[in-house]
Fold:
Amino acid sequence: MAEGPEEDDSLAPLAYTPASDSLSAIQPAEPSFPPTDSSEVDTAAADRSAVDSSAADSSAADSSGVEICPWTRIAVEINGSIYGSLAGLTVEPDILGAHVVRCMCWDLDPWRGVSAGDSLYLLVGETGRENRVVALRYVPVPGSPNHPFSVYSFRMTGDNFPSHYYSDGTEVMKLLSTMPVSTFEEMTGPYGEPRGDHTHSGVDFKAPLGTTVRTCRGGTVTRLNWNPEYNGNCVEIDIGAGYREIFLHLESVDGGITVGSVLARGDRVGTVGSTGVTSTAPHIHYQINDERGNPIDPYLFFGSRRRNLPQGDMAVFTAFRESCDCWLSPGTAAGAR
Structure:
């Protein structure tokens, strides 16, 4: 992966007046996670912040005393796809575009729901995970049904990895009401994401190699390791009423699991891997099929919840958010540092 977007001094900041985020505070119940194995905890990740929240305070100043932004700043007007609009601003626009889409897909359809003239303002740099979006502000063109929003990368106390949060500390990503993994870096493949001549039939959670994978519902194992060239090691479970729970790209399937095995909710299925030619990094592809064998959105099947940053994190998060907002403001969010 490239170190970051190339600077484009010719990109002028877009003229806009950002509207305040009209996000109501959400106080959901905590989602159900399977128990965490001690071997799964990434202690190195747990000891580091998502983004050094003091970066803006410790950033260098130039000879005139003006503070230098510690991240790459990009302002772009969308014309066509998000990926195409980023071309020329980074060595690998497809990669940065994917990172941007992951920040936006919870609020709108980033493939078909953006309009020509919508604006994106980005801070890009090291975040402690693959996604390099430190902060993002989306401003729709006047008359659009979409609403403006901003998101910021931050690691909640106790989490192994950072996530993105709205201005009020509500997590951008939704968690399934019951999760197949207890720790993961990011949801890297939403259900329905366009992929060439098809759409993604499940949800991808990027997690460390060897992370325990558990059944969210329990049931009878109906298939193991079918079409392994593409699916890798995989398990299908009949969870009742004709619905099937599917796990692809496993590093391994737990010993003793055979066709006909009956698993209870929360039982181990295997471990996160990157098996099969369609996998490019360790993750679990999690899928639900209906009684006709058609994939359906796991978020609709199980329901979902969002978390809020605890009160103890809010002071640090607010200071970090305010620093990001300064660099995302008109006149600073150009393509230069």
